[in-house]
Specification:
homodimer; 345 residues; Arc Repressor Mutant, subunit A; Enolase-like, domain 1; 5-stranded antiparallel beta sheet; 3-stranded antiparallel beta sheet; 10 strands; elongated; DNA-binding
Chain lengths: 345, 345
DNA sequence: TGTTAGCACTCAATTATAAAGATTGCTAAA
DNA sequence: TTTAGCAATCTTTATAATTGAGTGCTAACA
């Protein structure tokens, strides 16, 4: 249903006034008249507010307080009324500067992104990286330790895996030979490839089966770690939430802190995003938080890695600013990671 | 000043009852009589409480509420009255199991320690590792990227450094020769050694000065990173605090969350510990938190690394349990790290 | 038909007052 | 030295009264 221009103006004004207010204060007809519509009487505005309420975009806390936007009101605003806030050059530079000057690991990228977003938006930010092909094996070494224990060290350009295990032999020469074969086979290969059973079997069976136990165990360790480092989540600005009066209720705030502290439950929300564009979920229940909104954007990296960056904030949030910041960060991430592939062996 | 046995018993009873209570309730003479001293009348106990108050160990919230321990009361209790709680075999195994089965990096150790402590004590835990000699250089590679940019990759057993920089040349052969020399000089050397100017000059000037620019830049990068990874702090269980009624005041809780979220200010507290033994700071102001206590213990690793593990909790805290857990964790850390040196190349 | 002034009505927020309950300090007796 | 008894103190809870912001509705007006 289409709104008259005046209704649009009033709905936007209610939302923007409410968002700006420190304490989530309801917006009264008088306030709207004084600040947005001096040519109308408050009674006229009241009529309009009433109409907007009947359409479901606004609501009442009680008979005699001003209006507050509903979930539907925010959705209408986001889809039709909101104008995207242009970032200033200074803001853009500020964001970009956080990624300048270094080639960085995925872990590094998501941590920096989360911090950057939370600083720029003043909301809590979550950045998640899906399975990645970026980690490439640089070195594999096997050390004898004791008859029943050997040390496996695998170095990638993203991290170092080291794990004690039992390889079936503690003979230094055997371990040397086995690791030489492994090195020849796998150095330069992405970690994620090792998870692929077909690839493993194809490559390994060609060789001597003498070291089968060693190979299996080492490749299992690599596979496991590959799953591990490919699921990376970073949260920044957990303390931002508390600036919003929605969380002045101590129970709500405690719940929020607890959810962010034990953040496994948040992964699914950021994992299944195929969206190229910004996605906004108003009043998202999935977070486990009441009346919170989640905005997210997915970056597609050349090598197939997907990074999803988002903010979590109160439903009453500055969507426009958040969207602009997310877009800028996403673009910066893609630029940083996609122009780099050439020389990263 | 020495207390009579009865006074000792009463002071301990007040503290233990207060600590056990959910809501930091003051302890009354009647309660003490019923639960600890059935043979005395409440009036007698009141007289003793009064005496203990005059000595500074207890205080009043207002005329007609029970007694609450003061900072001095806790200190007296800790130094003279408290008996250290023995952990059960099960609790010990629980702690140790968190460190089993893997050779781990310092980062890993401090994260695991913090989680373990916070789980075992139900307080927030902070673990800090001072400068370390553990990171040993495993590989150094230099890649040409563009006339003005080269990529430096340094692999250690603790992490991977990669940084874009300008090395003065983009010639592949030159970079190869330079990195070969660097590898020969530095592989197997601890990262921390590179910071040492004397060592650098001594080792590098012996060689051709042809690659001086390259050497200087690469070693600078390593030095910088060495400073970086040697100062490691991990916090776990930030949400534990909120279970204690002291933090039901939303402002206090917010402050605590904010301090833990931006934790730089906590480093000095955990950095300057020379103590081998447990140190307890009741009502520590250094944290920026009101009426909080900090308990910490320092582990000395063979290679000179110092790891300080601690808990932060309300002044009204179970000191006995916390001390036992810290001691157990410290011992486990030392065992884990000190028996491992042999086979970690 | 859309706009507006005016006024009764509603309900949260604030303030005031009273009553109940827990605990102490003190006194005097055991 | 210990204890019973009691007034005094101060929090907590409950209840009531007051205030004030803001709406909804009606009737008049452009």
């Amino acid at each position: 249903m289409d709104l008259s221009d005046r209704k649009k103006k009033i709905l936007s004004a209610v939302i923007e006034t409410n968002v700006k207010s420190k304490k989530a204060e309801a917006v009264s007809s008088k306030q709207l008249q004084e600040e947005y519509l001096p040519k109308l009487s408050s009674a006229t505005i009241r009529n309009e507010l009433n109409a907007l309420e009947e359409m479901g975009y606004l609501t009442h806390l009680h008979t005699s307080s001003g209006r507050v936007p509903t979930k539907e009101g925010y959705e209408k605003y986001i889809s039709e009324l909101m104008r995207e806030k242009k970032l200033t050059t200074r803001e853009k530079e500020n964001i970009q500067s956080n990624f300048a000057n270094k080639l960085i690991s995925i872990r590094d990228i998501i941590e920096r992104s989360a911090k950057t977003i939370s600083k720029a938006t003043n909301y809590t930010s979550i950045v998640y990286s899906g399975p990645s092909n970026r980690a490439v094996i640089k070195d594999i070494k096997l050390y004898p330790v004791s008859p029943t224990t050997q040390l496996v060290v695998v170095v990638t350009n993203e991290n170092v895996i080291n794990e004690l295990t039992y390889l079936g032999t503690n003979n230094e020469d055997d371990l040397k030979s086995a690791s030489d074969i492994l090195k020849e086979l796998f150095i330069g290969k992405p970690l994620s490839l090792i998870k692929n059973r077909d690839f493993r079997n194809k490559v390994v069976t060609k060789e001597l089966t003498k070291y089968k136990t060693v190979f299996d165990r080492v490749l299992d360790i690599i596979s496991a770690e590959s799953n591990n480092i490919s699921n990376n989540l970073s949260i920044a600005g957990k303390d931002k939430l508390m600036e919003y009066s929605e969380f002045n209720d101590i129970e709500k705030f405690k719940k929020a802190v607890s959810i962010f502290e034990n953040h496994e439950s948040l992964i699914p929300i950021f994992d299944n995003s195929d969206d190229l564009e910004v996605s906004i979920n108003v009043g998202s229940d999935d977070t486990g938080l009441e009346d919170c909104s989640v905005i997210k954007i997915t970056c597609n990296i050349n090598d197939g890695t997907k990074i999803t960056a988002g903010v979590v904030g109160p439903m009453r949030m500055d969507y426009s600013k958040a969207v602009s910041v997310l877009k800028e960060v996403a673009e910066t991430i893609e630029n940083t990671l996609n122009t780099e592939g050439d020389y990263d062996e």
